[in-house]
Specification:
Elements lengths: L3 E4 L6 E2 L2 H5 L6 H12 L2 H7 L5 H11 L2 H13 L5 E2 L1 H12 L3 E6 L3 H9 L8 E4 H4 L6 H10 L7 E5 L2 H9 L3 E4 L5 H9 L2
Parallel strand pairs: 1-4, 1-6, 4-5, 6-7
Antiparallel strand pairs: 2-3
Helix pairs in contact: 4-5
Length: 199
């Protein structure tokens, strides 16, 4: 019997789209492209998620790569970007229903701690019973060890758990550990609800 619902963050509970995030800042088209490449398409961005560097260290690197006129803008973006993410309200409404039905809700995400803490410390944090974040663990999905951390930390039975992620490699890794898994896009919310209600 299914007891635990585990959600990835990017493109599962929110729309992770760097262009849409940057649309919240006043940037010319050229500066928009430059900032997107400098921040979101950089190797450092991945290193934040893997816990190799902090957001503060990455910010210094990004600032060093842009013209003077963009330095303060880059700093502002790095501090405020989580506030400019579009969260999926229907997913949170569904999570609320699941909690009322007695399911436990967990987060398992490849993310830096700035975004992780933003979610935890906002009202969205109230929806979750626990989390495992890549930057904190210095492990990234689909490495099986990050799933094992979640299972061990919250004493979960994999066979009573479903993992929801937008990437097939990550859901496949969960299946190998005996979990149910669902590869998600926001337009599949109805399918997900049906899948969970049938298990």
């Amino acid at each position: 019997m299914l007891k635990n619902i585990i959600f990835d963050f990017g493109n599962v509970i929110m729309n992770y789209n760097p262009d849409e995030i940057l649309n919240h800042y006043e940037l010319s088209p050229e500066d928009h492209d430059l900032v997107r490449k400098t921040i979101f398409e950089s190797k450092e961005w991945g290193e934040i998620d893997s816990g190799k560097i902090t957001e503060e260290e990455a910010t210094e690197i990004f600032i060093s790569k842009v013209p003077d006129k963009l330095k303060s803008k880059v700093k502002q973006i790095m501090v405020t970007w989580p506030e400019n993410v579009d969260f999926y309200e229907p997913v949170f409404n569904y999570m609320e229903e699941l909690r009322k039905q007695g399911y436990k809700i967990y987060g398992l995400s490849n993310t830096g701690m700035q975004f992780a803490n933003f979610v935890k410390n906002s009202e969205m944090g109230n929806y979750f019973d626990g989390y495992v974040f890549s930057a904190q663990e210095k492990l990234m999905k689909p490495d099986r060890r990050i799933y094992e951390r979640l299972i061990a930390r919250y004493i979960l039975n994999p066979e009573e758990s479903i993992f929801i992620d937008d990437l097939k490699a990550n859901t496949d890794a969960a299946k190998k550990l005996g979990m149910l898994a669902f590869t998600f896009k926001i337009d599949k919310l109805g399918e997900l609800q049906e899948y969970i209600s049938n298990h």
